[in-house]
# Entry
Amino acid sequence: MKLMKIITDGKTIDTLLSRSVVEVLPSKEALRELLVSGKQIKIYIGADATGTSLHVGHATNYMILENFRKLGHKVVILIGDFTAQIGDPTDKTATRIQLTRDQVLENTKTWIKQLKPIIDIDNKENPVEIVYNHDWLAKMTFEDVVNLASNFTVQQMLERDMFEKRIQENKPIYVHEFFYPLMQGYDSVHLDVDIEMCGNDQKFNALTGRTLLKRYKNKEKFVFITTLLENPKTKEKMMSKSLGTGVFLDMSNIDMYGKLMSQPDENIPQLFTDCTFFSIEEINKIKKQLTDKTTNPRDIKMRLSFEITKIYHGEEKAKEAEIYFATIFQKKEIPDDITEIKVEENILLADIFVQNEIVSSKAEFRRLVEEGAVKILRNGVEEEKITDYTTVATTGVYKVGKRRFVRIVE
# Structure
């Protein structure tokens, strides 16, 4: 078997340890020493399958994971199909709704497809390993779980901010919620990793895994904590379904470009840093341009929107979205080349949209309907929202999101 060449270039490693990184535990210095040693290490990132769509905030971690893979290290994508059934209490003031196994599996169907533009999953020399934690967590006996739980105290669990807040607000904390960090922590033990990558909101869970790996295998694990996309003024998450600000990887090129254009100006620098392949030198030039009063931030944002859309849809589709945006918002017009679809009677709108690739799936259509993002227009005026995802199509102009139009004719 051919051994993978490990790249130990100091400048490349220094960039990897500084861009989009909040903290490395126990230290960046120790991890740098390991990376320049030439030893192949194993790094993983996990995500629970609580929804069908990943967003550009999730993508930051997978872009960093790809940089580790390019250095020759073994990388693992873990899909939390078991832990999603428990529900991560992180940052939640109420208990998460527990999902069924079928719901979880349905959610993961398009994840790998969404990630392929940013990570070379099928690389022949150093492929990405994809694992599902149901494969080992579902096989644990009650004795195994009791032994796992014996490594921590209730006091340690209650130190978590969201549990303290719930106690103060007299809200319930369910026993099964304590098992979440134990299960995520055991993933590190089963995979026998050297590094776990996570956002700052997952620090407690990742450190639980560090403790367990030390106790079960007497092995140190690095915790590589990345930045969360957060508005520097409001401190709100940039990617939020509830706030209507999410930029999801399964969006059409038109919707993705438009959603990025709707981001506040102050978010531009971090989005360039965390969500594009621009070099730090290029990003520093952009930051300098933004301080120049003669610069229109909209022009910089159009560049950002084009670059991110290009990553997931290609240059041609990004250009199409750019022209579309200019037509709709700068000229205030519905485009002349609006997509026109001829249909027969009694066909579901969802089926038409999926068949004609207006949306990627029925799940996406349902999400858009639930968000109030599908509307029917007449004479260019918004008539009404589509509120039922089983709606039968009628003739007329439909507005999908804020920026895409479809005309249905008989």
User: Anything to note?
Assistant: The two ends are 61 Å apart (CA to CA).
